[in-house]
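User: Run a structure prediction on this.
Assistant: Running it now.
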Amino acid sequence: MTKISSKLTYWNKRLFPLLWFGFLAVFVVITIVTGAVAKDPVFLIVPCVMAVFGYFVMRRLVWDLVDEVYDDGDYLLIKNRGDEVRVALGNIINVSATTFMNPPRIVLRLREPSKFGSEIAFSPASRFTLNPFAKSPVAEDLILRVDRARADRAA
């Protein structure tokens, strides 16, 4: 069984948001304590706008990622918050990979919904590359194998 999800998922889902919102909270507290807010309310408005923006971006791009994905041949073992589910490659309708996004994402659309829903998103393990147009080898492999599993299922 090979882990195909990124080792940075914990950082992206848990630690980075904690730092983001923690920094904004500390900034707001400091501006209130020093009296800067009384002089110029922009010191309170900007962090609030950044918090709302950060919340919506993280909700859309980060918090829906599952924790771990393992490749087990004809199945993917998916773990999220202590729950596990096995998804057969034949149950996957579509594999879509996003480029130019951080963290990178692969979204699996399922024929029959699992415990985690009909779409499962994860951040693939990737190696460093200077090519911004490079395709994800994990996504390319999954696309080929899902197509093979679909062909075997139809036969």
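The chain has a mean pLDDT of 91.
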